[in-house]
Amino acid sequence: MRIGFKSILILLFLLITTVTSFAQDLLKYVNPNIGTAHSRWFFYTPAAVPYGMAKLAPSTNGSYGNLQGWEAVGYDTRHNSIEGFVHFHEWQVGGISFMPTAGTLKTVPGELDKAGSGYRSTFDRKNEVAQPGYYSVILDDFNIKAELTATKRVGFHRYTFPKSNSSRIILSIGNVQGESGPITDAAVEMIDDVHFQGFVITYPKYVKTYDEGGRVAMYFYGALNKKPAEVGAISKDAAVANQKSAKGIGAGLYLNYQTSANESVEIKVGLSYASIANAKLNLETEAQQLTFASAKAAAQQEWKSELGKLNVSGKVEADKTKFYTGLYHALLGRGIASDVNGNFPRHDGSIGQLPKDAQGKFSYNFMNTDAIWGGFWNLTQLWALSYPSHYSDFVHTQLEIYKERGWFGDGIANSNFVSGVGTNFVGLAIAGAYQADIRDYDLNLAYKAVVGNELGYQNRLVGSGKMDTKSFISKGYVPYLDADKTDSTGSHFSGSHTLEYSYSAFAAAQLAKKMGKNEDYQKLIQLSDGWRLIFDQSLKLVRPKTADGKFIDQFNPLEAWRGFQEGNATQYTFYVPQNPQGLIQQIGKTTFNERLNNIFETSQKNAFGGGKTIDAFAGIQSLYNHGNQPNLHISWLFNYSAAPWLTQKWTRAICDEFYGTESIHGYGYGQDEDQGQLGSWYVMASLGLFDVKGLTDARPTIQIGSPMFDRSVVSLGNGKRLTIEAKNNSKSNIYVQSATWNGKVLSKAWLYRDELMKGGHLTLIMGNKPNKTWGVNIPPPSNQ
């Protein structure tokens, strides 16, 4: 059959229209307002691109600070006024707030619920638009429309004013924002009629605790599209008219305008962690030719492209909203910290330089990142599936830290150590990258760093975690200390540390085996059995031991914080991902399945965690707590215990009930969405794919669950395509009856990951009753 040129054009038009229509539909499914009660600092930053440095967002209480360093702060759906629009939102990083106002000059944001106490404004959420790459709101007190968008390193503002002789923009520089901690220095100045520049240096709580002496510096260079009628300076104590610069704590400027009705003032703000010159260069490189409208269009196109790597379709619209909002959060957190010229901030205050590849492009990006604690059960699996360049960036960043400091840093804020967990799973995450064929880095350096993370303790820096490594290596477990501390003799969190170090030792052991380091392998694989030394056979539970080898007394399996960090013995007993079969044998298969199933039966009544209590730690004394990292793999353990239908049942129930589509019920009720981890878990679980071992096996496997969607098409990171089809799928048809992989019968509830990554078609026939013969005969490999 011959097709004419005109027909080809029509077909191409229809294809482009279909693709564009699908991509446009994806933004419709992202709702940034989900889970915005008690949300973390990074969480609500709609005016950003994936992994951006510029993360612009409204702030309702960011200036209130963050006493403990990690609490929910920034934007809260229960608040009804906005105090400014802030540019930086990362773990332990925040600063530079702008606010359009009018009327009498006020130089402080004021109190949340006290009208007129400052320049903050009330707003109505009916007049608020939040989308990936764009935010707008009407500030009711001033009748001003504020709009935000961004490129990777440049923030854009458009403020549309009413007719007024007293329109104004406040540039608040030297003030606390979110997780920034105290300001140590700041400055801002107008350098000509329409350009301004400056910096702010902060001392966040977790830098002070884990990397004392470090600082977080943020630099900016801005361009206005209209000259202000007047510029004044703001200090901590006063405002001074006709002054174009301000320095120190509380530093800021106010820009006065005379505006006609519906007149807009646009601002472009280049950002950098390295220097003002780089902030200017970032602006000129990324945004010189862009208007607000074109920047918004580019940002949203980038979101469409990244979200579109995962294409899901099904009958339930709410599930698609959960899916793409979860994916949005996963792609939003952990932003780049390097500039367009490859500069990045180092801990010692100097500037690092990224290398270039053979094509003259920078080989990777340097990042800021929260701790990877638990990230191997969500983020790294998602990265390895479809976003491997970001996994590569993570590995390269940590190797840069290692080269400068001699240790991995887990959480990183401008090369400062900011991990508050103290266990440091960076080595495990890098071992997982290697096993997932992400290897575009110095393998020998990586190996040395990974093994050092597991076995090294001499002169170990506090912020690198694992301060009790010496005791773990010498005894095979971490001894319990009554005092709330961790040192070379043990830890107050000895139970969870023993389990975690056993797992990460396994990951390093598998890497050693792959690289032919047999002596290291033998040492590490022996340490991976450390969990057995604290397993109380009489209770069938893990239980901390003191240095003399005795189990602790007055033991309550549901007591949190005694022996277990952010959890309890009941939850942590299942923390043996490196050897599920070994744990099942210790407990007994029947007892294991009954106990774990009963845990989920009971936990379902409590929303799989902390119930409806709005508190990140509401679930740590419960039987199961999906709102925190230590539990995120255990619903998948039934695949190892010959009961895969229970994995199908409970992963679907968690997706349906723990996750919501409302502002208060989004990620449970506690909303402890650590830079995209809970969102990533939903994405992976709803696809029906997961790895209990976090990709750390010598030949990783992917376990199969119960897909939420009728059809999912995954663009794999290697360029291949994976299609997952769930036939007869519905809210009641949650159980796999049979399966095929590329047309061949699949009788196992798992595949080797390397087979999956070749691409193909996984078809699952679903039903409303468990098929207790499917997937039971050959469990996933447990102890490779």
Q: Overview of this structure, please?
A:
Its cofactor is Ca(2+). One of its GO terms (biological process) is carbohydrate metabolic process. One of its GO terms (cellular component) is cytosol. GO terms for molecular function: carbohydrate binding; peptide-N4-(N-acetyl-beta-glucosaminyl)asparagine amidase activity. Helix 8 (426-435) runs parallel beside helix 11 (494-514). The termini are far apart. It is globular, with a radius of gyration of 26 Å. The protein has a nine-stranded antiparallel beta sheet. Strands 1-3-4-10-17-14-15 form a seven-stranded antiparallel beta sheet, with no helix packed on it. The protein is an alpha+beta fold and 784 residues long. 28% of the residues lie in helices and 22% in strands.
Return residue spans where pLDDT drops below 50 for at least 5 consecutive residues. 5-24
Average of pLDDT:
95
Portion of residues in beta strands equals: 15-25%
How do the strands line up in the largest sheet? 6-7-8-9-18-13-12-11-16
> Count the helices. How many?
18
The rough form would be described as globular
Q: Helicity level, as a percent range?
A: 25-40%
Class computed from helices, strands and strand pairing: alpha+beta
Q: How many strands, which pairing sense, and closed or not: the largest β-sheet?
A: 9 strands, antiparallel
Span between N and C termini? 55 Å
| Estimated radius of gyration | 26 Å
Number of strands: 35
